[in-house]
């Protein structure tokens, strides 16, 4: 075989590798976007549930319930900021953990009062 055949085969192989790598990177990006959207949906559901629970607690309450309501409202705002700044699913899971903990605390205080 002449050198031209070897050059043509190497160029063809390099092109095939480049196409394969591009397809792999596109597939990984699509998978990451889908995972991000899935976690984002979960966090928004948790946030809406926390908002509903905050609305269920009366604005005029005393003692520990009032303090927990205030803390829950602060955590809700913090989670909203985290959600707006989130770029990875890990950022979203941190916001979700904050919201779940706040919901549990609010529910415990509300049921105990």
Main traits of this protein?
113 residues, mainly alpha
What this model shows, in words?
With 113 residues, the protein is mostly helical. It contains 3 helices and no strands. Helix 2 packs antiparallel against helix 3. The longest helix has 54 residues. The protein starts with a helix and ends with a helix. The model has no long low-confidence stretch (mean pLDDT 87).
How do you describe this structure in short?
This protein has 113 residues and is mainly α. The chain is 89% helix and 0% strand. Helix 1 (3-56) packs antiparallel against helix 2 (63-85), helix 1 (3-56) packs parallel to helix 3 and helix 2 (63-85) runs antiparallel to helix 3.
